[in-house]
Structure formats: C-alpha cells, structure tokens
Amino acid sequence: MPDDASERTDGKRRAVDRLINFSDAVVAVAITVLALPLVDIEGPAPGESVWPILWDHAPQISTFLFTFFVLAIMWLAHNRVLNEMRAYDGVIFWLNTTWLAGIVLLPWFSALYGETSSRSSVGLVYWGALALISVLGALMGRHMRAHPELSGRTVALDPKESRRLALRGPVFAGYFLLIGLVSLVLPDVASWMPFGIIILSIWFRPVRSQQSEETA
C-alpha cells in the first residue's frame, strides 16, 4: 500500500494538473472570444469585392492577429512555469488567478483598440493590460525560482540564465507600456513598434542547457 508521503505527493500532482487544465481552458476560451468581433463584419454584397471590406476593417483584423500571437507566446511561457510545478502555494494561486483575469479581459480591450477611430485614446489601456499580464507571469516564474520546493528542482539555474529569466518579463512589460505611451502622442509610430516584439521573442527564446530548461 502507498505510504502517506506518496499519497500527499500524488495529491499535490493532481492539484497542479487541475490548475493547469483550468488555466488552459480559460486561455482557450479567451482566444475564441477574441475572434468574435470579426464575425460581426458583414461580407461583400453580390457582385462586390471583398478587398474593400478587408481594407476598411484592417485595424480590427491586424489587432486580432497580433493579440492572438501575443496570447500564444504568453501562454507558452506560462505553460513552462506550470509544467515544472510539483506543488503550488497561495502566492502562485493568486498570481495565476489574476493573470487569467487579465487574459479574459484582453479580448475586450483588443476589440476597443481595433474598433475605435481614435486608437490613441484606448492604446494605453490595451498595451497596459499586456504589460500587466507579462509582469504577473514574470512574478510567477520568479516565485517558482525562489521556492525550489514547488518545482522539486535540485540543481540551481546557471546565474547568467537566471538573470536572463528574471529580465524577460520586465523587459516585455516595459516595451508594451512604452508602445502605449507612444500611442498617446505618435500613434503612427506606435503602430510599427509591435514588430520589436519579434526581436525580443528571439532574444529571450527558451534555451536548453545541461542543467535545466527555461521555465518562464
């Protein structure tokens, strides 16, 4: 028969699995809701071309595509943290819950940003929400690294890699917030700044080392 320690370990593992499944379900629903504003776009009338419609709704479409891929990147980083967990505490629970709340609100902010004629008026809210979500994800990773008992990690991260992981979330959050601030005064410039996220994603991409794999 299994001993009490094994039962406690199995119970913690099941709790983490349920947390992961719940989080994944919330993100999946949020990504689905993200596309709903596009469903309301009317198609071309008989004999008309679809291109003018795509052009007229280009801000909505581009905002949807960008938010979709950013959500996917955020989910991937978030998933690495949760997959390494062997247990979680109250701090992780509430950070994760707040992270999910931001993810659920993001489709609404995205719709506002894509549909408004004056994008600068809601740009700070949209980019600020992305910054907040990024910070929350970074705090989860930082808490995990500070409490190895939650992950069962027995080998410490390389100091250089640990510093890189610690910088990832704040750098992304700072860049998101910068885009929001620039959108208030130079919306045309801000519309090109999201391409910088590609560079940041490459720079902070996961690196597998002999000791460990990036988790945030």
Your description of this structure?
With about 220 residues, this protein is an all-alpha fold. The chain has one domain. It is about 75% helix and about 0% strand. It has helices spanning about 5-35, 35-40, 50-55, 60-85, 90-115, 120-145, 160-185, 185-190, 195-205. Helix 5 (about 90-115) runs antiparallel to helix 6 and helix 6 (about 120-145) packs antiparallel against helix 7 (about 160-185). It starts with a helix and ends in a 13-residue tail after the last helix. Mean pLDDT is about 80; it is low at about 210-215.
Rg for CA atoms? 20 Å
Count every beta strand, where a strand is a DSSP E run of 2 or more residues: 0
Average per-residue pLDDT, rounded, comes to: 81
| Number of helices, where a helix is a run of at least 4 consecutive DSSP H or I residues | 9
Reading the helices and strands in chain order gives HHHHHHHHH
Q: What structural class do helix, strand and pairing data support? A: mainly alpha
Strand content: under 5%
Give the helix level as a range of percent.
over 70%
Sketch the major β-sheet: none
What is the rounded distance between the termini?
A: 37 Å
Shape: globular
